[in-house]
Amino acid sequence: MTKKNNSEYRKKGKNHNKSEKKYVARGSRKEGGKSKGKHAANDSRKRSQKTVTVEVTCSGLTNDGKGIVQWEGKQLEVAHLMPGETAEVNISKKGRFFDTELKRVIKPSEDRANLSRSSYYEGVGCQIQHMNEHAQKRFKQKIIDELMKPFGKPEPIITMELPFYYRNKNVMTFGLNKKRQIICGLYAENTHQIIPMERSIIHDQKADEIIQTIKGMMKSFKMQPYNEDTGKGFLRHVLVRVGKKSGEIMVVLIAASPMFKGSNNFVKALRKAHPEITTILLNVNNRDTSMVLGKQEKVLFGKGTITDTLCGLKFDISAKSFYQINPVQTEKLYTKAIEMAELTGKETVVDAYCGIGTIGLIASKKAGKVIGVESNNDAVRDAIHNSKRNGVKNARFYQGDAGKFMVKMAARGEKADVVIMDPPRSGSDEAFLSSVVKLQPKRVVYVSCNPVTQARDLKYLVKNGYEVDGIQPVDMFPQTVHVEAVTKLVLKGSR
Ligand SMILES: C[S@@+](CC[C@H](N)C(=O)[O-])C[C@H]1O[C@@H](n2cnc3c(N)ncnc32)[C@H](O)[C@@H]1O
Q1: In a 3-state reduction of DSSP, which class is residue 436?
Q2: How many Å apart are CA 296 and CA 286, to the nearest integer?
């Protein structure tokens, strides 16, 4: 179903600032009724052979934040519609599915957000920004409560006081529209179609500005956006990372080729427009992939990294290393995770999937020894550097697969008192989890940005000797459907 096409995403409706007009959500049911005449008779207006406009009432929400509606015996999903709301919706048949598009909310919910920020309304990736803070909180709490039901009752989600402009990393993709004008934006859900956008209520505003400057410079520098279909062109994406506390800014130009003609002049012009930029890199990604960054990297200006501060420690961050995107909420998450670890100063702590070493280094002050493991080479190099930079003497970092590393630790009969694990969205694996069971740490603190895979992994640990002793959701991604949670497990009989 994924369509690779770099052309401008077709927007339905004329006024693109109106949230109701921008979203196309795929209906969840195959076609049931066949009679088009019946549709025409029941519907207020027939837009085309396959599109009808109907009035519907929303009865609930999917876990993707879409409104559930019933239409002609079918259950459909409508983006940006809330329970209790009545709305006009366009429904069109796409093969065996139905696409829905919210046209107009007739009776809005009391929980609908005040979109006075509509000039910033650039909805891609902000699936629930039409919900006010109470509705967002309820939505996320319900998801986590349901998924964690077998393990206990989660605490109330820790929300963010000012849930806007929090992201420290923006990535925009470049392409050409049908008029062959340069556009940049985000991919529409499950596609490679670029929805042009200039800013978002969750992006760092300076980062958005820099990306727009780059877009504006491209023509005069004869820089073509890359076309995935033809393999021609140069610039694929721009990544901007901001140290929210340090003010340092990294710009990464992700190109299809290392041949960057006029790079010196480009860098000079960009720095002139934005003297606040502290480093600029060229990253080369010539693979047919949906991964943004390639392996090859060249520093064009500055030191190639930026520094940021978290929980009182300074961290250097490379372009390819993972770094939590919401530093305000990260401090709350880490504080909770370290509290759950119940460190007394003696413990051997494994920081698995450690990234640039943030959790382990912050925990090191309260631990006997920290062992970090991470698969990304650059992140491990950053972690070792960050350890030295912060004068931490009791932490060691290793590059490798966390599962294999733990299997070796278990085989060597090594000891771990606490395992803190923070795997990617896909969760952990059996090699890792079975080694945890062999190593028998007294506590496991599981940080996760995907409660579905977290619940799966908790089930394994609970089946094999652990019990859940606390679940704390943290809203790391306001305005979006994503939910983060940290869970404490204790070895049965160890207390
Ligand atoms: C969600 S991030 C957490 C990083 C870090 N704990 C933090 O808070 O910044 C997950 C990390 O796991 C790493 N990773 C992914 N798969 C891995 C594996 N099989 N073994 C070790 N590390 C892995 C990624 O490179 C990434 O740095």
Answers
A1: helix
A2: 10
Instruction: Answer whether 376 contacts ligand 1 (Cβ < 6 A).
Output: yes
Chain length of the chain:
495
Q: Ligand 1 mean position to 147 CA, how many Å?
A: 23
Do residues 485 and 451 make contact, with C-beta atoms less than 8 angstroms apart? yes
How do the pLDDT tens digits run along the chain, 495 residues long? 233 333 322 223 222 223 333 333 344 333 333 333 333 333 444 444 589 999 999 999 999 999 999 999 999 999 999 999 999 999 998 888 899 999 999 999 999 998 654 433 456 789 999 999 999 999 999 999 999 999 999 999 999 999 999 999 999 999 999 999 999 999 887 788 899 999 899 999 999 999 999 999 999 999 999 998 999 999 999 999 999 999 999 999 999 999 999 999 999 999 999 999 999 999 999 998 889 999 999 999 999 999 999 999 999 999 999 999 999 999 999 999 999 999 999 999 999 999 999 999 999 999 999 999 999 999 999 999 999 999 999 999 999 999 999 999 999 999 999 999 999 999 999 999 999 999 999 999 999 999 999 999 999 999 999 999 999 999 999 999 999 999 999 999 887
Q: What is the CATH number of the domain that holds 469?
A: 3.40.50.150
Q: 353 CA distance to ligand 1 centroid (A)?
A: 4
**Rounded-to-integer distance, Cα 71 and Cα 81, Å:** 15
State whether 408 and 294 are in the same domain.
no
Q: Is 69 in the pocket of ligand 1 (CB under 6 A)?
A: no
The question of whether 58 is a catalytic residue gets the answer no
CATH of the domain at 47: 2.40.50.140
SS3 for 437? helix
Which residue, chain included where needed, has tokens 């902000």? Answer: 126
Q: How buried is residue 397: exposed, middle or buried, by Cβ count under 10 Å (0-12/13-18/19+)?
A: buried
Q: Is 421 in the pocket of ligand 1 (CB under 6 A)?
A: no
Residue ending a domain, choose from 303, 335, 362: 303
